[in-house]
TrEMBL record, chains A, B:
This is CMP/dCMP-type deaminase domain-containing protein. It comes from Sediminicurvatus halobius. The lineage of its organism: Bacteria, Pseudomonadati, Pseudomonadota, Gammaproteobacteria, Chromatiales. GO terms for molecular function: catalytic activity. Residues 22-148 form the CMP/dCMP-type deaminase domain. Residues 1-22 are annotated as: Disordered.
Length: 169, 169
């Protein structure tokens, strides 16, 4: 699987009280770097990394158009890769790091996979401003999703970069 | 892809005012037959068929355990196969026939894929009675899903058969 590349994060990485070492920001930066690679390749600028017990066990970008697969969102592909990697159908205790706020489909898939926490960089409003508006789909969800998952917005200085450099808009 | 087997439906197939030729029941019977094959193989007794312009373009069973993939529900696998088959990312105008009521993940995936109508045989309560209770997941959804999809329950005499013969409970 793709390396998380989290050693490449430089000084100045954000850290919070809940994450004194800034590990969340480092994993999230690796997702943003993945999204940038997607953008450079003309693919949708979305990328996700699944981290379990401090290790990246899945990392993938959106391949919807590449594979003619409407379910091949970055988060779902990363979940599928992670489950293959650990030979299980559940990712209990894992955190999903996503370059942008997950859509309704990915939130439900994450909940079904037992993901406990999702950290994302750019929010859906920011993605919409950059030409990728998937907010209408959120109306499919009820409030129950927030009882299954902790959803945390961690904006980083680089959050918007994959979107502004994207050629797939 | 797997044939729809819809010519095998015998006399006595249910028909309704909306479906005078009983085609819905025939496609649904083919999904039930697929679920029975799953059950015979010790796999989860769920199967789905995607029909577009009167043709089965995708047909698949649940392979969650077989492939360590928590997203490999029958409906999602059938949608993925259908999109590959027609080389598109959307199934606009298609109907999904499912041996049992789709779970929350499959409903959202179907909506994202542009499926317009889902017809299912056994409802979630019936599946729960047979040992497969996925009703809690429905709480993840809001009412918006019903604005995207027409969801029709068409119980057939054979609806419960894959579940009672299942070895995977």
């Amino acid at each position: 699987m793709t390396s998380g590349n989290h050693d490449e994060s430089g000084p100045g990485t954000a850290s919070t009280g809940d994450d004194p070492q800034g590990l969340d920001a480092q994993w999230l930066e690796s997702a943003i770097q993945g999204a940038e690679r997607q953008a450079r390749d003309g693919a949708p600028p979305f990328f996700a990394v699944v981290v379990l017990n401090g290790q990246a066990v899945g990392a993938a970008g959106n391949t919807v158009v590449l594979n003619n697969d409407p379910t091949a969102h970055a988060e779902i592909m990363a979940i599928r890769e992670a489950c293959r990697e650990i030979s299980r159908t559940r990712l209990t205790g894992a955190t999903l790091f996503a370059s942008a706020e997950p859509c309704a489909l990915c939130l439900v898939a994450a909940a079904f996979a037992g993901i406990e926490r999702i950290v994302y960089a750019l929010d859906a409003d920011g993605a919409a401003d950059a030409g990728f508006d998937y907010r209408a789909g959120q109306a499919l969800l009820g409030s129950g999703i927030h009882e299954c998952l902790r959803l945390e917005h961690l904006p980083l200085p680089d959050s918007i970069r994959p979107f502004t450099s994207s050629r797939s808009r």
